[in-house]
Design a protein that fits this description.
The protein is mainly β. It has 2 helices and 15 strands.
Length: about 220
């Protein structure tokens, strides 16, 4: 039994590694100097098909000329009681691991139950039984500044969900930009300036260069 469990764990790790996405950021010398002098952070956000970018997924303060930002298709679901611009995500339920084609149930006591098979085939599904206002949210695994994989919020529904089924579909679109005075996990509803949207739907790697305060994709 232990050997079977170990084998299954290795297979899961191999699948996640195979599906890992990497966004490589290259920053020119002149721009790096300017950004550091003005205390800009390198910021990332992830798209969920049912909404716009609205949570700062990760911020890097101690970046250098080359940065590799990686993520894996490993998700969690949670709920908040409110969505507030420029505030940190405040999770108010259990955070539960979930995969595509699985469903989590949020009961009337705000208890988030473990995921069960079944749901939308290409999405995360929440069965909401709570009668008050609740805002579903999604975590996804990515690398922090030290290269450590951690699960952090990528999305919180800006509008409260009513009783019934909620569909949340993470897609491989990542927004990258530089900003001052912003933290990982901050909720926002405005369009950020001078951002680049990287589409990794059909590829596992993209190389971007930031030069003369402009983004461009480097061809393979």
């Amino acid at each position: 039994m232990i050997q079977q469990h170990h084998s299954a764990t290795l297979q899961l790790q191999e699948l996640r590694t195979a599906a890992r996405k990497t966004l490589t950021i290259e920053i020119s010398d002149a721009d790096l100097t300017t950004l550091k002098k003005s205390n800009y952070k390198l910021c990332f956000a992830k798209k969920v098909n049912e909404g716009e970018y609205n949570v700062v997924w990760e911020t890097y303060q101690y970046y250098s000329t080359y940065v590799d930002f990686c993520w894996e298709p490993s998700y969690q679901i949670f709920a908040c009681k409110q969505f507030t611009e420029d505030m940190q995500v405040k999770v108010q339920t259990k955070t539960v691991s979930i995969g595509l084609n699985q469903t989590c149930r949020l009961d009337q006591n705000l208890l988030m139950h473990d995921a069960q098979d079944g749901g939308y085939p290409t999405a995360l599904t929440l069965l909401n039984e709570f009668t008050g206002e609740i805002h579903p949210g999604v975590n996804q695994v990515s690398t922090d500044e030290n290269g450590v994989l951690k699960s952090k919020p990528i999305y919180v529904s800006p509008m409260p969900s009513i009783l019934g089924t909620v569909k949340l579909t993470p897609v491989e679109l990542v927004q990258v930009w530089f900003a001052q005075d912003i933290q990982t996990g901050t909720m926002f509803s405005h369009a950020v300036s001078n951002a680049y949207e990287a589409d990794l739907t059909d590829t596992n790697t993209i190389h971007l260069k930031f030069e003369n305060q402009r983004w461009r994709r480097m061809e393979d």
